[in-house]
Amino acid sequence: MDEFKFINAKTAAKKLAFLSSEIKNRALLNIAEALENNREEIFNANKKDLLEAETLVKQGDLSQATYNRLKLDENKMRDMIQGVVDIYELEDPVGKILLLRELDTGLVLTKKSCPIGVLGIIFEARPDVITQISALAIKSSNAVILKGGKESVNTNKTIMNVIQTALDKIDEFPKNVLTQVFSREDVAEMLSQDKYIDLIIPRGGNSLVKFIKENTKIPVLGHADGICHIFVDKTADLEKAKRIVIDAKTQYPSACNSVETLIIHEEFNAKDELLTALDEAGIEIIFNPETWHKEYSDKILSCKTVSTLEEAIEHINEYSSGHTEAIITENRASADIFMNAVDSAGVYHNASTRFADGFRYGFGAEVGISTNKTHARGPVGLEGLTIYKYTLQGYGDIVKDYADGLKTFKHRDLL
pTM for the full model? Predict the structure, then answer.
């Protein structure tokens, strides 16, 4: 991958930063229409990838969970297209006035949202990621360089060609906003381009995220694991517990927001009924496993019994990946303690962990889930792809006047 691709992406990002909402929205509608019109071509490309992936699964070179993420069906295609439309309908996140403060008469400070610049996205399987990232990047005025997994190369190329063709129909839309790369060498090159790439977002397993964090100076946004917990408190309603745990484990077991550890209060008097229901739902329960850090991505649950709410919280804060946790309880006070004390990006009361998703949060789509504690946390949508800058309007003002006591600050908020 030659350096010109990075330079071109940086140049495109600068042009995109000043693009009107009208043009960006027109681009998104073009993409949604093009995806609809070319769905069979995309499905055919995906079938090629699936055929090759089946061999890799049989050889042990590809996990079943990764294979499941690779498959595109009518539901995923519908969600892909709707996700682009949803982003079109959202307010433009760029240029928002976040703070307007008069420091002194005529000296006005403004905090305004702006794009991050160039995003580097490295992901495994899940070709639908391309449409999510592309739409979010366009709406938030960021250029993006995408590197998908080799297992989805045919689907990725086809989807990107459809998107690029749609964008080429708009004369005012900058070139090189979206760039796709394919090889491992490209990844190594991306990670070295801290001069041109402003943020790396990995979407994949622990080994991928760990490798990226250890091999770049570029800020990294993402999560390494999805070790999510559900705590069934002593006052939990059995029917709610059954519905929530079964949904969180079986609705999509390979998702990062699928529950991996079930914690049950020893005074919950319907424990046996709950475990029976989980077994009937095809969930394997492992009591006191060798490690609490395992992400099964399958219908398997680690299980532990605790004697107090505090013990459950302590376990979660020790072993969670900081993704999403839930408590099932009819005691509001216990729920409040849990939600305040658990240190994760998402903490729920009487709801499935599978709600941790940008689409379900009304973000339109997401570039991923962040367990970071700076800039963005949880599902990262449009706002997570913007940063801000401060502008100051003055009339020959100098600091010396304030240091010498000739003037004093007013610090009056105008918003």
Answer: 0.84
